[in-house]
């Protein structure tokens, strides 16, 4: 089982316990943790705080802050990180006790449309390299696929908002169906100031 969560910080012991409980309750074998806000020099302390026996953790942090963290149960699978960027970590996954292997990219985008261009280019180039190999993308794209995925103020569909959908189209990627509430983000306002979005 594979999971991904935008944890919005993983430095405190309470959040570490919540994440650990989620991993154990969900019986996850591989996790991508996003927006970890971990200073590189504190990474080993956070891993110790998670207290996950037989698990290994890596991050995309080289200096400053780790934005993405990947963990896996070494008794269940082998993970080989093949690409690391500021907005992604791509890994080859091999389950030990069965012949299941695939590639997964954990994504946590930067905030501005200009900063995201590197990610869109990476996904398009990587899709060409993948061929027919199974490739899963998980994470926080902080973007909507189409204008109908937004409700409230600022529903203008300006050019940069098309980048995500165009990237998925060019990379020949498909969004999986979802269940539950349509909108996954709310700006905390009400009445005319309310904005709702289905963020992927």
Automatic annotation (TrEMBL):
<dbReference type="Pfam" id="PF03372">
    <property type="entry name" value="Exo_endo_phos"/>
</dbReference>
<dbReference type="GO" id="GO:0003824">
    <property type="term" value="F:catalytic activity"/>
</dbReference>
<feature type="domain" description="Endonuclease/exonuclease/phosphatase">
    <location>
        <begin position="5"/>
        <end position="193"/>
    </location>
</feature>
<dbReference type="InterPro" id="IPR005135">
    <property type="entry name" value="Endo/exonuclease/phosphatase"/>
</dbReference>
<dbReference type="InterPro" id="IPR036691">
    <property type="entry name" value="Endo/exonu/phosph_ase_sf"/>
</dbReference>
<protein>
    <recommendedName>
        <fullName>Endonuclease/exonuclease/phosphatase domain-containing protein</fullName>
    </recommendedName>
</protein>
């Amino acid at each position: 089982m594979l999971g991904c969560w935008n944890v919005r910080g993983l430095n405190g012991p309470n959040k570490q316990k919540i994440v650990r409980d989620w991993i154990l309750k969900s019986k996850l074998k591989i996790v991508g943790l996003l927006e970890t806000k971990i200073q590189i020099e504190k990474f080993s302390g956070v891993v110790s705080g998670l207290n996950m026996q037989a698990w290994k953790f890596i991050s995309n942090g080289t200096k400053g802050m780790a934005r993405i963290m990947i963990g896996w149960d070494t008794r269940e699978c082998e993970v080989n990180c093949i690409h690391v960027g500021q907005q992604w970590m791509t890994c080859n996954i091999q389950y030990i006790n069965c012949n299941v292997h695939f590639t997964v990219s954990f994504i946590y985008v930067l905030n501005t449309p200009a900063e995201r261009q590197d990610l869109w280019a990476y996904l398009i180039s990587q899709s060409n390299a993948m061929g027919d190999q199974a490739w899963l993308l998980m994470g926080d794209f902080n973007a909507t696929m189409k204008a109908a995925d937004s409700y409230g103020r600022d529903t203008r569909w300006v050019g940069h908002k098309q980048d995500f959908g165009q990237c998925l189209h060019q990379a020949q990627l498909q969004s999986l169906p979802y269940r539950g509430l349509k909108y996954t983000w709310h700006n905390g306002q009400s009445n005319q100031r309310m904005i709702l979005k289905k963020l992927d």
